[in-house]
Design a protein that fits this description.
Strand content: under 5%
Helix content: 55-70%
Number of strands: 0
Structural class: mainly alpha
Radius of gyration: 14 Å
């Protein structure tokens, strides 16, 4: 898939909602298999310690961590996250 086309498609996720962000980011990463190892590593890096002992038993970062990440990335916590930003971050993480 052409990245310029996927950029437009990924930016279609409008306001931040955890469900919308999760699905749009998931699809954006799913169509880029070369980013899968970086994505898995990032999920586990952002997961709370001992995540497997708390329901729903999946490595989901809590809201305070995500708010902090958005604030450090954009300068304010109410910014919109887009899947293209996740893809850019994963590309950077993969390269380092």
């Amino acid at each position: 898939m052409n990245d310029s086309v996927s950029y437009v498609v990924c930016r279609a996720a409008v306001k931040y909602s955890p469900v919308m962000f999760t699905w749009s980011a998931f699809v954006a990463v799913l169509i880029r298999p070369h980013l899968w190892p970086a994505a898995v590593g990032t999920v586990f890096d952002l997961a709370p310690m001992r995540w497997w002992t708390k329901f729903p038993f999946v490595p989901i970062p809590d809201d305070t961590v995500m708010k902090w990440r958005v604030t450090t990335a954009y300068g304010q916590s109410d910014m919109t996250l887009a899947a293209v930003d996740v893809v850019s971050y994963l590309r950077w993480r993969r390269a380092t």
